[in-house]
Design brief:
524 residues; mainly alpha; Growth Hormone, Chain: A; two-stranded antiparallel sheet; 18 helices; 4 strands; 3% strand; globular; transmembrane helix; membrane; MFS_trans_sf; cytoplasmic vesicle
Length: 524
């Protein structure tokens, strides 16, 4: 084979490593797998714990209860009957009638209270008290991922500033693979809890490094908005596929099957990262990033982070509580528990891709404001559903509105850093991921307890009103002021192409030249 033919794959690989589109593909796949694992457990865990703990405990007690003699029936096993033929009393076995004859009179036996509760509708699970307690346990298990991610995110942001995005991205893949395999073979609540917490560590590395990598590669604000919309489409697709895929595979194949499929897909993602990202290569940022605590003091970043937190908290509260509410009120089979989230996932996928482009034209602040209002209204409508078909409308509106908020807020985070701080994105996307995690930590952990205390409908009212109340704050992001001196310093040190933002004062093009001050004075 000629040497030129040997070089073709290496040329393709080198071109791929220089391609922004392939970087976007890597981030898309990583977010897809992370969120498939996030939601695939939603329909599996409640029914798995019910089957293994409640039904398993009752089935082990049931044989012991059948061994003793049966309790007294309404009719005694032996009846006495007086014979007028020879004036004697004869004892007979198992009289078909529930009466006794004494001296020719018919006497009804004393009535016994029923020993069993009225039968439940077909398909409804027993154990109301167990299901009420399970709300809290399942909520804590789901929240463990976000709580761990909340703690790890700031450290990952600092790590990406020092060694770049490639190595943390690959570390995230390794941890995610281990978590998926552990989910497949865990049979107790404790092991499931550990696997979920381990997923939080891997998700922190993947999401912070992935989003930061996109922001550093797509420096133009319009292109960055489109790229973030596509990447969030991977997140949406993972949410879309996860719950229905998990419920169907669990119902018809088994509990381990969906996790083994995800583990195989994770291996393919790892191979893609090895080829494209070169995770052994350390690429620290040339410019020191703004510290996390400085970014947290920026009110505009806090408003954007709050919008991400509260809009996602609604669906986070639904994840542990909606399947159990459906089991108790609708008597839903296993496959419906995951399919209930399908409308929200489809509409989220449409919303993120549609408003990745439209949000820049209509104003991202307006897009997020409308989105949060629709999130609140949709949550208020969820408890009105009487069957799974009644959930289609509220869940569709919820997913579409969250897609509006996410596709608007994620580019705004990078835009605020460009406008007001140093254009290094690891820390700001660590804050964005912390906002996500706070929603997915507070939501499930408090949602289960609130449902047990005051009921599922009131939980939806509380989080719906919170979203509607918070929505007007997005108006603050309409025209955030720029810290021009920081942008000028950054542009002199590291010239790059930037898009001119509309601010209180018109900015000059960068990089600055020696004659720019004279030109500016002449223009004035």
């Amino acid at each position: 084979m000629p040497p030129a033919a040997d070089r073709v794959p290496w040329r393709w690989l080198a071109a791929g490593r220089a391609s922004r589109s392939l970087v976007l593909v890597v981030v898309f796949v990583a977010l897809l797998l992370d969120n498939m694992l996030l939601t695939v457990v939603v329909p599996i865990v409640p029914t798995f714990l019910y089957t293994t703990e409640y039904e398993g405990a009752n089935s082990s007690v049931a044989p012991a209860r059948t061994e003793p003699a049966p309790p007294a029936l309404k009719t005694p096993p032996f009846s006495s009957m007086f014979s007028y033929f020879d004036n004697t009393t004869v004892t007979v076995l198992g009289s078909p009638s529930a009466t006794e004859l004494v001296n020719g009179t018919e006497i009804n036996p004393p009535s016994q209270p029923p020993t069993t509760s009225p039968p439940l509708p077909s398909g409804c699970p027993e154990g109301e008290e167990f299901l009420a307690k399970e709300n809290v346990r399942v909520g804590l298990l789901f929240a463990s991922k976000a709580l761990v991610q909340l703690v790890v995110n700031p450290s990952v942001g600092l790590l990406t500033n020092r060694i770049g995005y490639h190595i943390p991205m690959f570390i995230g893949f390794v941890i995610m693979f281990l978590s998926t395999v552990m989910f497949a073979f865990s049979g107790t609540y404790t092991l499931l809890f550990i696997a979920r917490a381990l997923q939080g560590i891997g998700s922190s590395f993947s999401s912070v490094a992935g989003l930061g990598m996109l922001a550093s590669v797509y420096t133009d604000d319009f292109e960055r908005g489109n790229a973030m919309g596509i990447a969030l489409g991977g997140l949406a697709l993972g949410v879309l596929i996860g719950a229905p895929f998990g419920s169907i595979m669990y119902e018809f194949v088994g509990k381990s099957s969906p996790f083994l499929v995800l583990a195989f897909l994770a291996l393919l993602d790892g191979a893609l990262q090895l080829c494209i990202l070169q995770p052994s290569k350390i690429c620290p940022e040339s410019t020191k990033g703004t510290p996390v605590f400085t970014l947290l003091r920026d009110p505009y970043i806090l408003v954007a982070a709050g919008a991400l937190c509260f809009s996602n908290m609604g669906v986070a509260m639904l994840e542990p509580t909606l399947p159990i509410w459906m089991m108790r009120t609708m008597c839903s089979p296993k496959w419906q528990l995951g399919m209930a989230f399908l409308p929200a996932s489809i509409s989220y996928l449409i919303g993120t891709n549609l408003f990745g482009i439209l949000a820049n034209k209509m104003g991202r602040w307006l897009c997020s404001l409308i989105g949060m209002a629709v999130v609140g209204i949709s949550l208020l409508c969820v408890p009105l559903a009487k069957n799974i078909y009644g959930l289609i409308g509220p869940n569709s509106g919820l997913g579409f509105a969250i897609g509006m908020v996410d596709s608007a807020m994620m580019p705004i985070m990078g835009y605020l850093v460009d406008l007001r701080h140093t254009s290094v994105y690891g820390n700001v996307y660590a804050i964005a991921d912390v906002a996500f995690c706070m929603g997915f930590a507070i939501g499930p952990s408090t949602g289960g307890a609130i449902v047990r205390a005051i009921g599922f409908p009131w939980l939806m009212v509380i989080i719906g009103v919170i979203n509607i109340t918070y929505a007007p704050l997005c108006w603050c992001l309409r025209n955030p002021p720029a810290k021009e001196e920081k942008i000028a310093i950054l542009s002199q040190e590291c010239p790059m192409q930037t898009k001119s933002y509309t601010t209180q004062k018109t900015l000059r093009d960068f990089p600055l030249t020696d004659d720019s001050d004279v030109e500016a004075e002449n223009a004035e």
